[in-house]
Amino acid sequence: CGGCWAFASVQVVESASVLAGGLLKPLSVQQVLDCSRVNHGCQGGDTVTAFSWLNKTRLHLVLESVYPFTNSAGPCRIFTNSTPGVEIKDFASHSFVSSDDEEAMMGWLVGRGPLAVSVDAVSWQDYLGGVVQHHCSSSAPNHAVTLTGYSLVGDLPYWIVRNSWGPEWGLDGYIYIKMFENVCDINHCGCPVNPLPQMYAS
User: Fold this and answer.
1) CA–CA distance, 101 with 105 (Å, rounded to integer)
2) How confident is the model at residue 199 (pLDDT cuts 50, 70, 90)?
3) CATH assignment of the domain containing 42
4) Do 104 and 186 share a domain, yes or no?
5) How many domains does the chain have?
6) Could you tell me the pLDDT band of residue 200, with boundaries at 50, 70 and 90?
7) Same domain, residue pair 70 and 106
8) How many angstroms from the chain centroid is the CA of residue 173?
9) Which of 86, 117, 145 is the last residue of a domain?
10) Residue 199 domain-assigned?
11) Where is the Peptidase C1A papain C-terminal domain (predicted)?
């Protein structure tokens, strides 16, 4: 299922919700795959379009345990607002078009929380660890991931990126990307969100 766009979108909402004072609870990727008709389910989609749709519809994004991932798109299930979940009230999108803009991207990450970003991940299947410094394009994004942090320790600063291929891949599901050279086109676009207060069952 080519649902990376949905995973990245939901991961950002989860993180933003925690930063806003909520609990860390997995939200439903399947709900976004099934219900975001402006995207194309498992055939692909776009995080900016997904955030715009979530913002416009005020969709109540429910817990993963309520609407679990099935690895295929299906009919959209409807829930009342009494079902525990999260809504977003706004989002932002910015293309950090040059390597100099990665300084600005650091500021967004610190000030707004994790960002959904688009990257070239053609060579990522073979990633086993370390910092990716090349072997990917800086002009052909084809995969959505979540930028969660960075490290400036040592001689090789790097971004910390959460993927959607499971904890068995990479570094417990994460990959490190060299900073300040737009490696893998990582500064193509960054999107944070601002959630409404979440409503979880006690």
Assistant:
1) 6
2) low
3) 3.90.70.10
4) yes
5) 2
6) very low
7) no
8) 13
9) 86
10) no
11) 1-196
Q: Please tell me the distance from the alpha carbon of residue 174 to that of residue 9, in angstroms, as a whole number.
A: 16
Structure-token pair, residue 158 = 């790097």
Is 93 part of any domain? no
- Residue range(s) defining the domain that contains residue 142: 100-191
pLDDT, one tens digit per residue, over 147-197 is 999 999 999 999 999 999 999 999 999 999 999 998 998 987 778 888 765
Residues 104 and 187 in one domain: yes
CB atoms closer than 10 angstroms to residue 66: 15
Asked if the model's pLDDT at residue 38 lies above 50, the reply is yes
Helix (H, G, I), strand (E, B) or coil at 144: strand
pLDDT tens by residue, 51-82: 999 999 989 899 999 999 999 999 999 998 88
The model's pTM is 0.92
Phi (first) and psi of residue 91, to 5 degrees: -150, 170
Q: Which residues are catalytic?
A: 4, 143, 163
What Å distances lie between residue 71 and 29, 42, 63, 68, 184, CA to CA? Answer: 10, 8, 16, 9, 26
Neighbours of 6 (CB within 10 A): 29
User: Has residue 155 been placed in a domain?
Assistant: yes
